[in-house]
Amino acid sequence: MAVINRIGDLSAEMTTWRRALHENPELGFECHETAAFVAQKLREFGVDSIEEGIAKTGIVAIINGQKPGPTIGLRADMDALPMQEESGVEYASKNDGKMHACGHDGHTTMLLGAAKYLAETRNFSGRVALLFQPAEEGGGGGEVMCQEGVMDRFDIQEVYAIHNAPEVPVGKFETCVGPNMAAVDSFDIFIKGTGGHAAMPHETADPIMTAVALAQGIQSIVSRNHKATDDLVVSVTQIHAGTADNIIPDTAYINGTVRTFAKDVQAMVMKRLEELCSGYSSAYGVHAKLVYHKGYPATINHAAQTAKAAEVARSIVGEANVDAEASRIMAAEDFAYMLEERPGAYLHLGQGMGAQVHHPAYVFNDEILPIGASFFARLVENSQPLT
Ligand SMILES: [Zn+2]
Ligand SMILES: [Zn+2]
Predict the structure, then answer these.
(1) Are 72 and 158 in contact (CB under 8 A)?
(2) CA-to-CA distance for 295 and 145, rounded, in angstroms?
(3) What is the pLDDT of residue 370?
(4) Is 371 left (phi over 0), alpha (psi -120 to 50) or beta?
(5) What whole-number distance in Å separates Cα of residue 175 and Cα of residue 347?
(6) Which pLDDT band holds residue 1 (cuts at 50, 70, 90)?
(7) How far from chain centre, in Å, is Cα 255?
(8) pLDDT at res. 2
(9) 303: number of Cβ within 10 Å
(10) Does residue 299 contact residue 346 with C-beta atoms inside 8 Å?
(11) Any idea which ligand is nearest the CA of 133?
């Protein structure tokens, strides 16, 4: 593989950084130690400016090229997950109940590797903005960084990010133009009926019967309100009600997830859920209250930037290892907010067989560190050449 030689030389050093981050996972916006580690490294590399404390523990660092020009943004996430590590690696998490099970330690390290090379060589015009964000796994650290105005303040014109992908061959890039990751929302439905003795159901308004009928009615959104060739998930994932075999309870609770790629589909699902709640309420004499929570929006890759990123990936891993028309994924990504503000692209980078992300046995493959770092570095050099 044609990783940049100087970055290949950094492989062992990058592995040390990655494992140090892995041992000390932090959650959400509380990435204090992680951010301190990142800022310390960036200072050692001699980047031109470092602004800390963005979105609480996020960092934006700037590296100037040798000539004036635009600013390209490269983003890495820094946060871990609230779970107990069972990977068996010797550098496993030292923080009980916290684990880098999504490989954000690897993403942070790739961007640090690129930063070291770019600060040393500066074979580009314009500037690079290195965006290290907290709270990707819920909380929307990327959204908060956008709300705090990083795109305008640092005059960023384009943004790029990578995520590791288990089960995809080592070094294989996958991406696609348009929606790449889904908008992920959730809903709660609180059903208030009238409970009573199970022997006298005619004197009750049964919330359990409503919950079951409503859960089935919700399945008609995908099967009857939505075009069959488009992607949509609406799943009921929890129903809770009742305490005993001789009591019809007063209330029932439904919870579920909605995954969409287009805002008009999301709006249709919200409208149908409202209609179903009100329709079943009238039909069964109860009150079903919908609370809809919008999560991260869909991650939508821009055509020109995706083509450019795929070309850079080909120069590193070869034509056969880049799929620029890969299938989209029903999970969500906080980088979506950055792509709503600036054109750019999000790519997956294969790391080989092994446990999936968010599994306690997940292990990030350090082999892909120089590949990811080379991708970031070459993207800068190709996007903003000196000549
Ligand atoms: Zn994750
Ligand atoms: Zn992740």
Answers:
(1) yes
(2) 16
(3) 98
(4) alpha
(5) 5
(6) low
(7) 22
(8) 81
(9) 11
(10) yes
(11) 2
Residues of the chain above pLDDT 90, percent: 97
What is the model's pLDDT at position 103? 98
Q: What residue has token string 């965006």?
A: 131
For ion ligand 1, residues whose CB falls within 5 Å: 102
Cα–Cα dist 195/208, whole Å: 10
Q: Is 102 annotated as a binding residue?
A: yes
How far, in Å, CA of 339 to CA of 373, rounded? Answer: 21
* Three-state SS at 17: helix
Give the C-alpha separation, 64 to 274, whole Å: 52
DSSP E strands in the chain: the ranges are 49-54, 58-64, 67-77, 125-133, 156-166, 173-174, 178-181, 183-192, 196-197, 233-241, 247-248, 251-260, 287-293, 299-301, 322-323, 344-352
Measured in Å, residue 78 CA sits from the centre of ligand 2 at: 9
Q: What's the CA-to-centroid distance between 76 and ligand 2, angstroms? A: 10
Angle, helices 32-45/11-23, rounded to nearest 10 degrees: 160
Q: What's the length of the chain?
A: 387
> What domains does the chain contain, in order, with CATH numbers?
5-181+299-383 (3.40.630.10), 183-294 (3.30.70.360)
d(CA 138, ligand 2 centre) in Å: 10
Cα–Cα dist 267/125, whole Å: 43
Is 359 labelled as part of a ligand binding site? Answer: no
Residue 203 has pLDDT above 90, yes or no: yes
Residue 97: C-alpha distances to residues 60, 81, 93, 136, 255 (Å): 29, 8, 9, 18, 26
Q: Tell me the CA–centroid distance for residue 346 and ligand 2, in Å.
A: 12
- Give 236's contacts (C-beta < 8 A, 6+ positions apart): 215, 218, 219, 254, 255, 256
Assess contact for 330 and 234: CB atoms under 8 A. Answer: no
**Tens digit of each residue's pLDDT (9 = 90 or more) over 334-381:** 999 999 999 999 999 999 999 999 999 999 999 999 999 999 999 999
Strands (E), 113-250: 125-133, 156-166, 173-174, 178-181, 183-192, 196-197, 233-241, 247-248
Mean pLDDT of the chain: 97
